[in-house]
């Protein structure tokens, strides 16, 4: 023990595990510990009633200088995470006004949700936005490569001094293939086009990404934590290989990826999920010969957790999600507005979403601590469990033809749908408690009037992509 180490308690006085076990059995009955106090999560994850320091590996205490278990920034992110708000382009002028309002009130970047990619009015939408300070991300349900190319052309031609601009182009061929908005026959050329664009972007822009690895879409289909993370890892590998074929070095290729993962209402699970993801990304980097690298991770609350019933409870759900994402160490965090289930959020909804971040950041100061949950025996154990099971499933995908095969064959969507069915059954049976859904449910529905979302042609997975927890009982009543 070093002389300057502070000792908060004498470990010798800790009760033995056997003493705890004896006391617990006195309450639940001998032989009932496993049934009463142990629990299982989706994806084969297991939760014990108590954890001890013997279960953790001492090597986990090391802080990584790049992406790793602890943090991508060992000094702590003193400026806080990137608060990213979603906006939809219906009218360019009104969208621009809302974006400027958001950025002036605390948001740090904007995600443009784009349905129609023909002639996107970037000049009007981005007018007055200082793109070297406020980042722009693109999210397209289809034709993401077209939208990305238009933005690059705009930045290159209209703003010649743009090498320091911050943007995420959102090219996602596998995501479009999964949602049936891209033909299988077009996939390889589409992927090659994305890799070619990544080469151009890496040469001309220092703070930009090209590919979007959209675990959020996988979660929206129903994927549990392990299935989502395994899908994310397999998608990363597909895009890295495409960029390698285009002559892009592995370290540069990794920086051309933006990874998006879902965070929900199970705070410890989601904290551990983000930590495990970084550990597994580090494993992929090492397998490619890179020991230290940077890659951006965005955490976002999936739309299925935003209910149309009693929408005010959505504020509680997104607060837990934001806390989990920040504690887990996400670089970018985006949470839906509480009224987003009714249509395009208005200024009030955007304000509440934005202020959720600001309260957690400026009053809780989560961002000033490296890996706040680190050292918790439960979180460390859960992180290791997620990493182990996700890596096994990822290797299964790779050994059976890779993620493209999983998507084309329908195997991945089938896994996700089965997980969603289990989730729905648990809610209906009240095995899983969701406040405002199956507990403390408001019988008088709240109807908020919002402008409708722009919609493109529906795809084969629209039923699952449009799913919300408020649909569970409505669908059950209809059947």
Can you describe this structure?
This protein has 479 residues and is α/β, with parallel strands linked by helices. It has 18 helices and 10 strands. It has an 8-stranded parallel β-barrel with strand order 3-4-5-6-7-8-9-10, surrounded by 7 helices. Strand 5, helix 5 and strand 6 (166-171) form a beta-alpha-beta unit. Helix 9 (225-245) crosses helix 14 (377-399), helix 11 (267-287) packs parallel to helix 12 (314-328) and helix 11 (267-287) packs across helix 14 (377-399). The protein starts with 16 loop residues before the first helix and ends with a helix.
Ordered list of secondary-structure elements with their pairings:
Elements: H1 17-28, H2 33-37, E1 39-41, E2 45-47, E3 82-88, H3 92-104, E4 109-114, H4 122-125, E5 135-140, H5 144-158, E6 166-171, H6 173-178, H7 187-204, E7 207-214, H8 215-221, H9 225-245, H10 250-255, E8 257-262, H11 267-287, E9 296-300, H12 314-328, E10 332-334, H13 347-362, H14 377-399, H15 402-409, H16 411-428, H17 462-465, H18 471-478
Parallel strand pairs: 3-4, 3-10, 4-5, 5-6, 6-7, 7-8, 8-9, 9-10
Antiparallel strand pairs: 1-2
